[in-house]
Amino acid sequence: MPYQEHFETIAGCKVRIMRGGSGEKLLFLHGARGASAWLPFMEALSQRFDLIVPEHPGFGGSETPDWLDNIGDLAYFYLDLIDALKLQRVNLAGVSLGGWIASEIAVRNDSALKTLTLICAAGIHVKGQPKGDIFMWSREEFIRNIFHEPRFAEAMLAMAPTDDELFAEMKNRLATANLGWQPRLYNPDLHKWLHRITVPTLIVWGDDDKVIPPAYGTAFQQLIPGSRLKIMKNAGHTLQIEKADELAALMTSFIETH
């Protein structure tokens, strides 16, 4: 199903948005690598949903606003975006950094949400369970460590990035560092407030996630009342690529039963 690309100005920041499909509204928040392309995973979801994929302020084709200092700023930005796009009973999903943002949105105000899906989400700290340090990895190490199956990394490394793609990668890494350098990819206070989430919540993790270990999925499940945890076998951190069809089917089933 074809998607449309357009720009919206929210809180004084011009952001790039991809949108496609019809049905219930599903707002998907990307991870640290950005959302430059309409992935097969997105195409699968757009067969059942009105899928909305913004690029966060500071990332890719979106502007970098002066007010962007921390993850809380992005949470309030997306609450403004939900109001501006008149999204009611919207299904919210986020992967990795996007899952962290989704959690921060939901603890502040989940009244416009129907469901929440967190995929290999950052945002909390689990003692004795160190995360991979994405800021210290080379580009090749990063790509190899986000997958379980080496063939996905080999395919990505075989594609020589253009200058524009390299610029976008650097912009995304800078924005991620601005949000998650210290402490590394978590908010020390978030775990205290996850009990405020009242909407049905699905947590999905890969059993071989080298960026954020599966123990974090268990911790999120214990902190969010009534939430459900699904661990995918033979899967790494980038489920939306490595397990695209399985993840889209899981999300569709979860959303359609609530």
Give the topology.
Layout: E1 3-10, E2 13-20, E3 24-29, H1 40-46, E4 49-54, H2 71-84, E5 90-95, H3 97-108, E6 113-119, H4 139-145, H5 150-158, H6 163-180, E7 201-206, H7 215-223, E8 228-232, H8 239-242, H9 244-256
Parallel strand pairs: 3-4, 3-5, 5-6, 6-7, 7-8
Antiparallel strand pairs: 1-2, 2-4
Keywords: Hydrolase
Pfam families: Abhydrolase_1 (PF00561)
Organism: Pseudorhodoplanes sinuspersici
- The SS-based structural class is alpha/beta
The stretches of 5 or more residues where confidence is low (pLDDT under 50) are: none
Q: How many DSSP E strands? A: 8
Q: What is the CATH superfamily label? A: Alpha/Beta hydrolase fold, catalytic domain
Distance between the termini: 25 Å
- Residue fraction in strands: 15-25%
Q: Give the integer mean of the pLDDT values.
A: 97
Whole-number radius of gyration?
17 Å
Q: Share of helix among residues? A: 25-40%
Protein name: Alpha/beta hydrolase
Pfam families: Abhydrolase_1
GO molecular function: hydrolase activity
InterPro entries: AB_hydrolase_1 (IPR000073), AB_hydrolase_fold (IPR029058), AB_hydrolase_sf (IPR050266)
Q: Care to describe what's here?
A:
This protein has 258 residues and is an alpha/beta fold. The protein has a single domain (3-257), classed as Rossmann fold (3-Layer(aba) Sandwich). It is 36% helix and 20% strand. It contains 9 helices and 8 strands. The chain has helices at residues 40-46, 71-84, 97-108, 139-145, 150-158, 163-180, 215-223, 239-242, 244-256, and strands at residues 3-10, 13-20, 24-29, 49-54, 90-95, 113-119, 201-206, 228-232. It has an 8-stranded mixed β-sheet with strand order 1-2-4-3-5-6-7-8, with helices on both faces. The protein is globular and about 40 Å long. The two termini are 25 Å apart. The mean pLDDT is 97. Keywords: Hydrolase. One of its GO terms (molecular function) is hydrolase activity.
